[in-house]
Amino acid sequence: MTATTVDDLLTGELDPDRTALIDASGREFDHHWLCKTSWQAGNFLRHQGVRNGVTVGVVGDGPFALLACFGATMLEATTRFDPPTDLTEVDDFRALVAPVEDIESGTYEFPRGGQRVGYGKKPSQATVHHFDAGVWSENPSFPPLDVDASTSMLTDGERTLTHADVLETARAVVDDHDIEAGDRVVVRDSLAIPEVVAAGVIAPLLVDGVIVLAGESGADERGAVAVSSDPVSEAARIDPAAYRD
Fold first, then answer.
1. What H or E segment, with its residue span, contains residue 231?
2. Dihedrals φ, ψ of 97, to 5°?
3. Are 97 and 65 in contact, with CB atoms under 8 Å apart?
4. How far is CA 194 from CA 119, 138, 244, in A?
5. Gap between the Cα atoms of 207 and 20, Å rounded
6. Distance between CA 138 and CA 219 in Å, rounded?
7. Is the Cβ–Cβ distance between 95 and 77 less than 8 Å?
8. DSSP labels, 148-164
9. pLDDT tens digits for range 226-241
10. What is the C-alpha separation between 88 and 84, in angstroms, rounded?
11. Is residue 122 classed exposed, middle or buried when 0-12, 13-18 and 19+ CB atoms within 10 A define those classes?
């Protein structure tokens, strides 16, 4: 657990034989895939003007949502999961990564220069960049990073957590719940809560655990610890509110 910034967790030695992520359908993704594809997501988002000091909105709770967050993180941008529909009110907003149908529905209002990035089906509107195709076509490598621990990583619109904040929370979760390599952490709460990302995504990455994205369909949680605000078994629950300052 020597990482000083979250990008350290994505740029070290890659392991193709270790499962790092399981989605709501039960599909498994190895550590090598997760890191390499995060690099490709970062390279793609760079073309959309994502950089230090801007905010990237991300909609969804599946692998594409995580890849968008990791890509933005490696570019020193701030991720806001489940942003408001009026993006003109989001500070330094640059790009929205969301299902294509959500973007093309006209639900979101974009500020001048705001980039529309859709995943899933191919966009029918020329103003929407296709995240899937863009990511897969990018170089699976990433320039050396020098991210400061005080760089903002996550926001919910009211609070902003830096890389240092996120890692501090993740380490506390690991210590409090004795999470070890191979342990599964199931994300049952909203990624819009920064502590959920720290506990359900970053904590398992710290110790070579497995991120399980439960989604709406749920997931096999036998032997796993769940990040949840719901009153499930305390022995198997990480309460994100307990890690909010």
1. none
2. -110, 115
3. yes
4. 22, 28, 9
5. 10
6. 31
7. no
8. -TTSEEEE-SS-EEEHH
9. 898 876 666 688 999 9
10. 9
11. exposed
- Full-prediction pTM beyond 0.85? yes
192 Cα distance to chain centroid: 10
Instruction: Kindly state the average pLDDT of the residues 209-230.
Output: 73
Look-up of token digits 């760089």: 151
Concatenating the DSSP letter of every residue in 74-141 gives: HTT-EEEES--SBGGGSTTEEEEEEEHHHHHTT--B--TTPEEEEESSPPSSTTEEEHHHHHHTS-S-
The candidate with the shortest Cα–Cα distance to 20, out of 58, 57, 70, is: 70
How many Å apart are CA 13 and CA 69, to the nearest integer?
20
Residue 186: its H or E element: strand 184-187
| Total residues belonging to the chain | 245
Q: Which two tokens stand for residue 185?
A: 């952490």
Whole-angstrom distance, CA of residue 80 vs CA of residue 32: 25
**pLDDT tens string 62-84:** 999 999 999 999 999 999 999 99
* Residue 148 to residues 101, 112, 151, 153, Cα–Cα distance (Å): 36, 29, 6, 11
